[in-house]
Description:
It is a single chain. The chain has helices at residues 2-23, 34-44, 59-67, 81-88, 120-123, 137-148, 152-155, 165-173, 184-189, 219-228, 232-240; strands spanning 24-30, 51-57, 74-76, 92-103, 105-109, 128-131, 159-162, 179-183, 194-197, 206-213, 244-245. It is α/β, with parallel strands linked by helices. Strand 1 (24-30), helix 2 and strand 2 form a beta-alpha-beta unit. Residues 249-268 are annotated as: Disordered. InterPro entries: AvModA-like_subst-bd (IPR044084), ModA (IPR005950), ModA/WtpA (IPR050682).
Amino acid sequence: MVTTRVLLSCLILCFTTFTTNAEKLKIAVSANFATPVAELVKEFKKKHPFTEQISVASTGVLYQQIRHGAPFDIFLAADLRRPQLLEEQGLIHEKYRKTYAIGQLALWSATSDKNISLDDLKNYDGRIAAAGPHIAPYGLAAKETLISLNLWSKYHQKLIVGNNINQTYQQILSGAVSYGFISYSQLLNSKVGHGVLIDNSLHHELEQQMVVLKHAENISLATQFFEFLLTNSAQKIITKTGYLPAITIPDQQEPKPQEPKPSDELNDTEIAVVSI
């Protein structure tokens, strides 16, 4: 009886260890993309059963954690600079750095009962909220927007700075400030107040890149999820949640024996843009 119990315990322990090591995907994701990634994981799991561990923070914070050995498998950043740096430092798998979405910035007021615009900031004298420009790409885009509007000198000492864009969202929602900069994805999910999409020409393009990390414990699953995010079905979810589709450059291929007809130039990998 004792031997049977010991054997059963060993089998359970081995099964648990195998499941944990082989079927868990550790995702580090920039705060702006926390809600979309949950929906994408749900869709991916329909064909690839696994458990996920999602760590949400600003891009800058996650980048520093990865540099110091944080055990993530895949990193979804809100910019391209940190993924480029990780590649230069030899911390990612070769060919596994690509753009998965183009972010959009919005101005939001949770307390306004009417439509708002950027012009409202010209006559507003209170404080506004934004994520920290030095650690959060959306915070940097907010700063650049204020500079483009010649309003940075007016507001740079009146900013309530959040550690990431989710914290900024909560600051605005609580009524601590009347206006603040959030992602367009967050604006689409907001139930109160009013907001406005900011023209991308007012700030640098929010090209969001992802990388599979070299020290990933589950490289196979990480690369499959990476490739899934570039499929039409995933890109439709991404655009539905407030982003522009990824700008991807296909790998150069050998020319085919026959010259393609002009009508064949668009292939099946073309991404459909969903109106939002």
